[in-house]
Amino acid sequence: MTVLLSALPKSDSSTSTLYDTVRDIESRPETDDDRLRIMRHAYDEGIPPALRSLECDSIPIDRREDLFLATHLVVVHRPDALLVDRLICLHDAIVATNNARPYHHHRVHGVLVASRRFSAANQLRSKFGISVSELPALELAGGTGPRRLLLSEDGVTDVPWPNQEGWQIVAVVHPHCAPSQRAMSKVMDGSTWSWMLPMLTLLVPAGSAWEEGEMRKWNAHHPTHPMAAEVPGRTPKGVATNETPMFHLLQNGRVVDTLRGMPEDGEALKAWRSRVVEEPMERRRSP
Questions:
Q1: Does residue 64 contact residue 94 with C-beta atoms inside 8 Å?
Q2: What is the C-alpha to C-alpha distance for residues 187 and 182, in angstroms, rounded to an integer?
Q3: How many Cβ atoms are within 10 Å of 271's Cβ, its own excluded?
Q4: Residue 168 in 3-state DSSP?
Q5: Would residue 171 count as lying in a domain?
Q6: Which stretches of the chain drop beneath a pLDDT of 50?
Q7: Distance (Å, whole) CA 165 – CA 205
Q8: Residue 52, by phi and psi: left (phi above 0), alpha (psi -120 to 50) or beta?
Q9: Are 184 and 59 within one domain?
Q10: pLDDT for res 1
Q11: Beta-bridge mates of residue 170
């Protein structure tokens, strides 16, 4: 399951637009990192100075829609604060000229959810009557260290990442992803993969929907291995979250190997077991 991808309507313009440009790049066969880097470069080259300075009221009205669509397409892949602010700026300018439609509001709301700006998302929901559930109160921590969101009886809390010393496996999974469900069934319910459990952290990637209900169901059945939610930009360096399921092997906080998907025979995970369990045991047995 690929997350944070979008399917937006093609611009009505008969000429090439910035949105057309970044959308065409999105479909190219490069690796994810290369494709996103090219998209971001094309986007940065194509936006006007007024958008860089968040002076969207001075952007010509006939350019705002294209810039909104292009900005949204880029931000859903990388919801960094600057892009989110640009999308909000464009949305406000479109609203000011009475050209906003429900899809504008929904797209901004989804980005606010993904970037964990829950209060702003709730305000947008109330102002424009968006048919989505109200989000829980959330206060994000400052700093730069790795963090994640954990659910509790009282709501949701931004907490530090687990101790990064030694070996750790981060499983990037999604409650609605069938391959994720099959992978986690193998890990949680079978003795074959039980060696992973002491070092396993489950992470649900950020997306336009807040999957609290499904996460709570999982956590109720697996209290020792709850699903946590991603805080964009605050995962350990190298932990990608653009696909599910995906397994990252970390040593002392550094990603040393990544497995995308989960092959039926699990050969890659067998190699991990040899690396993190069997080899250390053999060294301890040696005189």
A1: yes
A2: 9
A3: 13
A4: strand
A5: yes
A6: 2-14, 281-286
A7: 23
A8: alpha
A9: no
A10: 52
A11: 201, 248
The DSSP code sequence of 191-207 is GGGGGGGGGEEEEEPP-
Paired with 214 in beta bridges are: none
Angle between helices 102-114 and 61-75 (to 10 degrees): 30
Quote the tokens at residue 93. 């300018």
Which secondary-structure segment (H or E) carries 120?
helix 118-128
Q: Do 32 and 90 fall into the same domain?
A: yes
Out of 98, 128, 158, a domain closes at 128
pLDDT of residue 245: 92
The DSSP element (H or E) to which 39 belongs, if any, is helix 32-46
Find, among 205, 200, 201, the residue nearest to 173 by Cα.
Answer: 205
> Both 169 and 259 in a single domain?
yes
Look at residue 15 in the predicted model and tell me its pLDDT: 65
Give the CATH number of the domain where residue 240 resides: 3.40.30.10
Q: What is the DSSP string of 43-86?
A: HHHHS-HHHHTT-GGGS-HHHHHHHHHHHHHHHTTS--HHHHHH
- What are the structure tokens assigned to 283, written together? 């060294």
Residue type (1 letter), 97 = T
Instruction: Tell the residue number behind the tokens 């690396």, with chain if given.
Output: 275
pLDDT, one tens digit per residue, over 73-126 is 999 998 889 999 999 999 999 999 999 999 999 999 999 999 999 999 999 999
* 245 upstream amide cis, omega within 30 of 0: yes
